[in-house]
Design a protein that fits this description.
The protein is of the alpha+beta class. It is built from seven helices and 23 strands. Bound molecules: fe (ii) ion (2 copies).
Length: 344
């Protein structure tokens, strides 16, 4: 039915009342020629994060807060969510001597990368993982986990979660374990020492949650002995792999460490995955589009999707090591991963 006095405005308002919308309101611009993101390149200084953690240690109790966690917030996103990117969250957790962060499980998958302290432990599905700097500990989706610090010093680690992605999928839920701590049934050392025979005997490998730095570091260093192993865009890059299928550490998060030797300057590229970096050792700089972010040990930064970037280690004597986590596994699963050499 066409009305003599009809107009676009009238049609739009009539349609809105019926929960309808005209595509014409988008005009003729169409879709962007390249992927676009609201995520901003951003760097967080360790001094700011650390000061906030220590102050939180004075005013936040684990009796009143499920976790004592400082989240890194991307200024391009709605700050209320506390997300660093649209897919991944990075935060830092502070557990004082004698404290216990109670046991729970949730649909968002999480990882811990240990920054400071020694001897606290995370229990994952009954497996005790004693934490030392550089260790990576996984708490995949719906695994029970709690953290206890029986050492004499505070413990700090990086938390990485796929919280924004799971939020976007409307899948967020959490359950509390009936007790504050779950019983310890075995240690990660036992699981790792039995790994060889477990593989031979076909024992499920879902229970590999712990990657010790003392195992990771020699492999990373061995890479640097062979120039042909150098990745032009990342220096010497070691990806953590699932022993289950050789795939990424978790379905939604890929983790890696990379070593930039003194004087390293990588070539420029870009990809449709977004990467969160943490400077574990040394210092350097990362050029992201037209901005250069100088980082030193403890700093964290985000390289948003499709931004051109390269890494520099300006030191003539010291190496730099970056820990990173990326949403590349998700993009690859959806066949949306794309990478482009942008150095020319
Ligand atoms: Fe948790
Ligand atoms: Fe990259």
């Amino acid at each position: 039915m066409t009305r003599a006095s009809d107009s676009v405005a009238l049609l739009d308002s009539d349609m809105a009342a019926k929960n309808l919308s005209g595509y014409w309101s988008l005009g003729m611009e169409g879709l962007p020629p390249e992927p676009m993101t609201a995520i901003e390149p951003c760097l967080w200084k360790w001094s700011d994060v650390h000061e906030s953690l220590v102050r939180a240690g004075g005013v936040i109790s684990l009796e009143n807060s499920e976790r004592r966690v400082v989240r890194l917030v991307n200024p391009g996103l709605d700050r209320r969510h506390g997300f660093a990117t649209h897919t991944l969250q990075i935060s830092f957790q502070y557990v004082k001597p004698g404290e216990n962060a109670r046991a729970h499980r949730h649909t968002p998958a999480a990882l811990r990368f240990v920054i400071e302290g020694n001897g606290a432990y995370t229990t994952v599905n009954g497996q005790q993982c004693v934490m030392e700097p550089g260790d990576l500990i996984l708490t995949p989706k719906l695994t029970w986990h709690d953290h206890s610090n029986n050492s004499k010093q505070p413990m700090i680690w990086l938390d990485g979660l796929d919280f924004p992605l799971i939020t976007a999928l409307h899948q967020v839920m959490q359950e509390r374990y009936p007790d504050r701590r779950q019983p310890i049934e075995r240690t990660s050392e036992e699981v790792m020492s039995h790994l060889g025979s477990a593989i031979r005997h076909g024992v499920p490998l879902e229970d590999v949650f712990h990657y010790k730095w003392r195992d990771t570091e020699p492999v990373l260093r061995a890479l640097t002995q062979n120039r042909s192993r150098r990745n032009p865009f990342d220096g010497y890059l070691l990806e953590y792999r699932s022993p289950l299928d050789g795939g990424p550490t978790m379905k939604t998060i890929g983790c890696a460490v990379q070593l930039l030797p003194p004087g390293e300057r990588t070539e420029t590229h870009r990809h449709t995955s977004t990467v969160i970096y943490h400077a574990f050792r040394g210092s350097g700089a990362t050029q992201i589009a037209d901005r250069c972010f100088e980082w030193e040990q403890g700093d964290s930064f985000v390289v948003p999707l499709w931004y051109r970037h390269c890494h520099l280690n300006r030191s003539a004597s010291d190496e730099a090591i970056l820990f990173s986590m990326s949403d590349a596994p998700v993009l690859k699963a959806l066949d949306l991963y794309r990478e482009e050499d942008a150095s020319h």
